[in-house]
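Retry 2 of 3 after timeout on previous attempt. Resubmitting structure tokens to design endpoint.
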């Protein structure tokens, strides 16, 4: 059995993700904020988590399907459009 040690950033994200799930659900956002799809959703940070500027907040994240999440990771212009969604 392989054991993976989770660091401070990982633990903070796990805790924040639980809070975000509840917050998004309370606001009625249960689909991709870009295309409206409801399949394979995850939180996308507008600023990359590795940059140190990422915010684990409702304002700093968007709920996206895997297709849009991948596009946002690869396309800076698309990612900037996501900032203007709300």
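Retry 2 succeeded. Sequence:
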């Amino acid at each position: 059995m392989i054991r993976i040690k989770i660091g401070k950033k990982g633990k903070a994200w796990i805790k924040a993700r639980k809070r975000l799930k509840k917050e998004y659900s309370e606001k009625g956002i249960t689909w991709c904020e870009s295309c409206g799809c409801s399949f394979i959703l995850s939180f996308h940070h507008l600023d990359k988590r590795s940059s140190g500027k990422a915010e684990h907040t409702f304002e700093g994240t968007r709920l996206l399907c895997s297709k849009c999440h991948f596009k946002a990771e690869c396309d800076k212009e698309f990612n900037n459009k996501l900032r203007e969604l709300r």
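Attempt log closed. The chain has a mean pLDDT of 94.
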